[in-house]
Amino acid sequence: RKTIFSGIQPTGVPHLGNYLGALRQWVDVQDNAAPNTTMIYSLVDLHAITVRQDPKQLRQWKKESLSMLLAIGLDPNKSTIFHQSDVPAHSELMWILSCQASTGYLGRMTQWKDKTANEKDSSEKLKLGLFSYPVLQAADVLVHRATHVPVGHDQAQHLEFAREVANGFNHTFGTDALIPPETLISPAKRVMSLTDPLAKMSKSHPNPKSRILLTDSEEVIRSKVKAAVTDSIDGITYDPERRPGVSNLIDILYHTDSRSAYSSQEESAKDLAGRSMRALKERVADTVESTVKRIRASYEDLLHDEFYLDRVAAEGAEKAAKSAAVTMKAVKNAVGLA
Ligand code: ATP
Ligand code: MG
């Protein structure tokens, strides 16, 4: 039997990269799951606070993110949807795993190195939670005995770490309490920023024009795509190395073109070869708009139904807590805590 687990941080309204790289897969898995499959999706608010958050803003983002998970088509009757901080077992397992995790390994994580590159000399300012974040992420996945974890490319390294932690724990304590999960990387594994095509699209990047939100109006989508950084080379070709901006637009087109007639990005670029950059951008805006349209409308309805959102979160937390309890019992037994 399969258990699918994944999470998203409530650090802003999800964007096209989140959708194509992760969220769309969550819904696909749910809608095509064999009867024996369990799907668990979390709004990982404890991860969100590894950087400073305004409490009021965080509360709002949690609500918005939950509405978005429902708007994209997750069904609480089929998938467990919950706020991470509602299920204390995540933090509890994290502590136990922290006592196994190597600081050397954590220090080599790309995300840690990136986020701390500018603060090299000020370890006073660097927070322990940001450093140990991958241990919490490992706990998230392991506490539900996930077998498969659908994520974008940027999370592959953290999942490698989760497998390492699981195997290490099982070996140390002579148990099979933890299951090393498989990573499922979506075909659109890395959607790039519209303003800096060498960086991935992110919720937390300071420039709102760098990303297309799943709540953006058609007008906003058109203006963001129009302003996307490209290059001055003639014609349309797919070449991520030399033409990252154009290639990102072709990627977006390819992955939003209602699962297109083209078999590859190269082929869809060929079709556009004689066209202008403007024509490419118009096509991208069209396909993005048609992808986002229905999501946006259903999001607006859901966001105002607080009663329903609270109920979904409460029921999700209850189911997630039950799932986690099974693992915690085995883990505590293995360690000698119970
Ligand atoms: P933040 O900037 O706060 O880290 P984020 O945009 O990176 O936000 P996360 O909540 O960290 O979003 O990640 C949620 C999921 O979306 C993860 O599975 C991640 O791999 C995926 N993801 C994030 N950004 C992209 C992207 N640009 N392309 C493809 N997948 C992405
Ligand atoms: Mg991220």
UniProtKB/TrEMBL annotation:
One of its GO terms (biological process) is mitochondrial tryptophanyl-tRNA aminoacylation. InterPro entries: aa-tRNA-synth_I_CS (IPR001412), aa-tRNA-synth_Ic (IPR002305), Rossmann-like_a/b/a_fold (IPR014729), Trp-tRNA-ligase (IPR002306), Trp-tRNA-ligase_bac-type (IPR024109), Trp-tRNA_synthetase (IPR050203). One of its GO terms (cellular component) is mitochondrial matrix. Signal peptide: none annotated. Transmembrane segments: none annotated. Its main location: mitochondrion. Its EC number is 6.1.1.2. Keywords: Aminoacyl-tRNA synthetase, ATP-binding, Ligase, Nucleotide-binding, Protein biosynthesis. It is an enzyme of class 6 (ligase). It catalyses: tRNA(Trp) + L-tryptophan + ATP = L-tryptophyl-tRNA(Trp) + AMP + diphosphate + H(+). This is Tryptophan--tRNA ligase, mitochondrial. It comes from Friedmanniomyces simplex.
